[in-house]
Write a structure and sequence with these properties.
The protein contains 15 helices and twelve strands. By secondary structure, it is an alpha/beta fold. Bound molecules: (2S)-2-hydroxy-2-methyl-3-oxobutanoic acid.
Length: 340
């Protein structure tokens, strides 16, 4: 130790003097919140989900008089999606947004909105997810002992990028080395296209593309832009093959530790932020393709019917109908029309 006791005493006395009369009330106001909760997610800070989450956190702090502090950890700072799913269950994190497709590792029904080419447009998505289909999925999530907020956040309709070749039709998927999120539905769907899918968590996608461990990946345009995937990809094919969203999950013990009036404030602000985030993505969708083109990505719009036909002939729809069961499948078909 380089300090004598006297030096330390002198230094701390000096610090007290330096803070003076201003220090004391400031320290009192900066008291730790009664409920300091971590919110983990896998998206870059600039993505609308994190922009709206920041506003949401500020509103929660104000409305609860500082009792609740939601701290946001973007870009998998606290671990990959797979890690975060364990943490939300154990209470290592209190809040986490996760794609229903990945959550299906724990709650099989949660991937149902990702069935290939099921949703024709956003109007149909929100009607289903804010309606009966979403309610069914949330009841399944609740059964797994997680808490889930009512409004699902938008990730978007997913498009395919590649460093080697554009995808003009299902045949171009043959042997295509594509990264998919960790989820049986994704693997099954790209296998049905005769592609060669590899499950990789999102926090490793950029480097997997950069080092060419895989040729391509698929994600919504808003995220391709926010995560700068155009830096390591050349083509973007508008395959629009599925709609994906994020459920806002809470650890049950942490949620139930909140008094009822506080819970109401927190849930209301989270759901309001989700609705605003959906609008942000919708607005972004009008301009993002032009932005990505300016950044060098080459777009093409394949005809989509042959992709859907390929999934049919590979038995994809009947296989998944069997897995979800008749109740869930009929809720999906009630929203989107007949699939299998
Ligand atoms: O991992 C992905 O590709 C992402 C960010 O879109 C999901 O969370 C499914």
């Amino acid at each position: 130790m380089g300090f004598s006791r006297r030096t330390v005493l002198k230094a701390s006395a000096a610090a007290t003097v330096a803070l003076g009369g201003v220090g004391a009330p400031f320290v009192a106001r900066a008291q730790k919140a009664e409920f300091s909760y971590k919110f983990a997610n896998n998206l870059p800070e600039s993505h609308p989900l994190n922009v709206r989450a920041k506003e949401m956190s500020a509103a929660i702090k104000t409305e609860t008089g500082g009792r609740v502090d939601v701290q946001i950890f973007s870009s998998n700072q606290l671990g990959s999606d797979t890690d975060s799913l364990s943490q939300i269950r154990s209470g290592g994190v209190e809040f986490f947004t996760m794609s229903g497709l990945i959550l299906s590792g724990l709650v099989p029904a949660a991937s149902i909105n990702g069935i290939g080419f099921a949703f024709p447009d956003y109007a149909t998505v929100w009607k289903a997810m804010d309606g009966e289909l979403g309610a069914y999925v949330r009841s399944e999530i609740t059964r797994s002992n997680l808490v889930v907020m009512d409004k699902i956040w938008d990730n978007g309709f997913r498009q395919t990028t590649s460093s080697t070749r554009p995808i003009n039709g299902p045949r171009d998927f043959k042997g295509f080395k594509i990264r998919v999120p960790v989820s049986p539905l994704w693997t099954s769907m790209f296998k049905a296209f005769d592609a060669s899918p590899t499950s990789i968590n999102f926090n490793e996608v950029y480097s997997a593309l950069q080092t060419k461990v895989v040729e391509g990946q698929e994600n919504p345009l808003a995220l391709i832009a926010a995560a700068k995937l155009y830096e390591v990809q050349k083509y973007c094919s508008l395959t629009n093959h599925m709609w994906d969203g994020f459920w806002f999950l809470a650890n049950r013990r942490a949620w139930e530790a909140l008094p009822a009036d506080i819970r109401e404030i927190v849930a209301r602000n989270i759901n309001a932020a989700a609705v605003k985030e959906r609008e942000d993505i919708e607005k972004l969708n009008a301009t993002v393709q032009a932005d990505l083109t300016a950044k060098g990505l080459i777009f093409n719009q394949p005809e989509l019917t042959p992709f859907r036909d390929k999934l049919h002939s590979a038995g994809f729809y009947s296989e998944w109908k069997g897995k979800y069961g008749d109740q869930a499948w009929s809720l999906l078909e009630k929203s989107v029309g007949r699939l299998a």
